[in-house]
Amino acid sequence: MRDSIVRLEGAAKTFPTPEGLSVTALDALDLDVDRNEFLTLLGPSGCGKTTLLQAISGFVELDAGRILIDGVDMTARPPYRRPVNTVFQSYALFPHMTVGENTGYALEVAGVARSERMKQVAAVLDMVGLAGMEGRRPRQLSGGQQQRVALARAIVARPKLLLLDEPLSALDKNLRQAMQIELKALQSELGISFIFVTHDQQEALTMSDRVAVLSGGRIQQLDTPRNIYDHPANGFVATFVGASNLFEGQLDNGRLVTSEGVSVRYLPSPASVSGAAQALIRPEQFFIAEEGEACPYLDVDVEQIVFVGSSFELFGRTAVGHKVIAEIPASRRRFIGEIEQARRARLSYDPAAVHLIRCDTDGI
What we know:
Layout: E1 4-16, E2 22-34, E3 38-42, H1 49-57, E4 64-69, E5 72-73, E6 84-87, H2 99-103, H3 105-109, H4 114-127, H5 143-155, E7 161-165, H6 173-190, E8 193-198, H7 201-207, E9 210-215, E10 218-223, H8 225-230, H9 235-240, E11 245-252, E12 255-258, E13 263-265, E14 274-281, E15 297-307, E16 311-317, E17 323-329, H10 336-342, E18 344-348, E19 355-358
Parallel strand pairs: 3-8, 3-9, 6-7, 7-8
Antiparallel strand pairs: 1-2, 1-4, 4-5, 9-10, 11-12, 11-14, 12-13, 14-19, 15-16, 15-18, 16-17
């Protein structure tokens, strides 16, 4: 049995549309969040991830289902009576308060004595890398520093659960990447469960213990980042998380054959396996074979080659028009000139790296 800090049972929520219809945000959703876990809710806009977060915090009332936090039914409790804090995308700092006052606001409301409050504020600001900045005001801080104050304010009272609603989206790329690592380290140090909402796939894969991929108000797959990427449960997850090459067809004695005649080998390949399926090959799983190296391959007409620093991205089509994207590491740049000149490439792959998705498990 899981040691869950949060459990959702049959959580359902619909919202009315201006046309008088309704849209389903949560579709009888079940979810367990483990104690001391970093769980990310990942999905496109409108998939239900923010509604799910707001339902846990109490800002959205469910139409049906239950929410339990640490074994206690919180479904009917207002937000201020839940052991939860939220960090928002906008930071929502009080501009007239100092960093120290912003950070210690929850402790002040709770009646914690000033001396103890200052001690806890200093400790948590040191934890997020803002030691000695208690006297500054939000306008004197960078975006990254304001984000750290918002985090400090949320964790100073040591809630059982911290909810983070796309808190890094306003930061520049380098700072965002640095904050990803720091957030994960902070979660481990605090021992508090984090539920993190994002639409950024790299962010989800970098930070999470587990990722819940949502679409249409349902969880399409809940798994470790590596399994989400390497072994997607259905076609939606395969195409949403990372770049992908999907070939749909029939299984035939160790091969998947598309209706256009493209053949993709896979392993293991028991002869008894048959039926409709999709074969997934990630772009980085293609390679340019050395002369004399026997590997299964696809011949493609190259339409575009893009240099992205550590690799070259090749965009092309098979003879029957199937789009293919491949990522060739810069260490094999010696092949690129020949490919550019011929506008053709033979893309090899390892059959053991091909992931099969049976069509009876395919998502929406």
